[in-house]
Amino acid sequence: MQSFTIIKKARNADNYIDSEAQLLTVPARSIMSDDIKIDNATEKITIPTGYKYGTTSADYTTITTDGKGETVTVAPSEKIYLYKSAVTTGENKMFKSVVKTFTAPARKEIGEVKIDFNTETINTTTSMQYSTYDETEWTNCTDTNMSVTAFDSWDGSTEKVVKFHIPSDEDNYASEVVSVTIPARPSIPNITGVAPTTNGGQGKLTGTTTAMEYKTADGGTWADCSDVETPVDSGSYIVRIKATATSFVGTETTIITVPPFSAIKEDTPKITVNYNDELLEGFIDGASYTITVDTDVAEKIAPTDGKLAIAEKYINKTISIVRKASDANHVDSTVQTITLGSRAAQPTGLTGIKPTAENGNGKITGTTADMQYKEKDNNEDTWHDCTVTETEVTAERHILYV
């Protein structure tokens, strides 16, 4: 505040003299509060009542909006202009203050935030904060390259969105918010262990793809799987989907067992007895067999065209037939047991009766329907059925068998 004495000078010396002195006090300009400043955390400035503000220039004529205690957002690196209005009433009148320019700071740079799916980390720094909710609650990042499991104990079962920023400080606004989606782990593949089909051969893991990898259940190094099936030795394995540039390694399977080779049992023989022709029938051509009579030592047999003549020592015995293993991938069959019947006793009580008329037939008495006869003298091979009590015959001599 300053005071001035003002005198109106005489307009001419002949008729006028100077006026009485007027004491004029000129008030000072208003002073803006030092508490007015941009809040870097909220990115706003509070405009008190009795102030005017604008965003165009520092010219009074462009600063026309009255403050009412509200907060005004100021974008990064933008300017806002304020002055305190003049006081025109009361004893303490004051001029408006000088215009003060407030410049908002720039944002901090956060850069790209991303997941390393091989190490299962996010490239955090200790200057960052993260939020798994609505950006109203922020937690300090405690390390560089934090594990993805650190964010709300993520366990891989579901997707999780995590937001990151660098908070504001005295010199800068907070950085932009960057969202990172942590995807769920790939599901457990459906894999089956299959035993080797040959002695000394490999088994396999079926249901695999080239996107998978496997290792032995007791440790070892992960190895790539093949499409459809992966050849492996007999043993225990675990399988998972491999990590990629955009997905995590999958959850491991439970232990998958590839059983050892188990030889294939040859088919059980299905041999039948032909009592008329005294043959065992139903052998497979090219296959090898053994026959054991009762508990005797097994003997190899060589059927012809699927048939084997019944040896006399088989009659009225129990025989055991086994199809032998055809190669190293097979084992002997289950035993087929056959009990063969006995031979019929030689007929007795038979009498040859000569013909009673010239060119007539003779007969054999004492025959039954379960007997047969053939002519001996002509070396006939065909057997004929007998009849009950007696059988007519044309030759003089015959031999009968049952």
What spatial form do the alpha-carbon principal axes imply? rod-shaped
Class from helix and strand fractions: mainly beta
Low-confidence stretches: none
Q: Which range best describes the helical content: under 10%, 10-25%, 25-40%, 40-55%, 55-70% or over 70%?
A: under 10%
What fraction strand? Answer: 25-35%
Give the helix tally: 0
E-strand count? 38
Most strands sheet: 4 strands, antiparallel
The strands making up the biggest β-sheet line up spatially as 6-5-8-9
Taking the alpha carbons of the first and last residues, their distance comes to: 158 Å
Mind telling me the C-alpha Rg? 58 Å
Overall pLDDT: 91
What can you see in these coordinates?
The mean pLDDT is 91. Strand 25 (272-274) and strand 26 (279-281) form a beta hairpin. The relative contact order is 0.07. The protein has strands at 2-6, 22-26, 38-39, 44-46, 51-54, 65-66, 71-73, 79-84, 100-103, 115-116, 121-122, 129-131, 139-140, 146-147, 160-165, 178-182, 192-194, 203-208, 212-216, 223-224, 228-232, 235-241, 256-258, 264-265, 272-274, 279-281, 289-293, 299-301, 307-309, 318-323, 330-331, 336-339, 351-353, 362-367, 372-374, 384-385, 389-393, 399-401. By secondary structure, it is mostly beta strands.
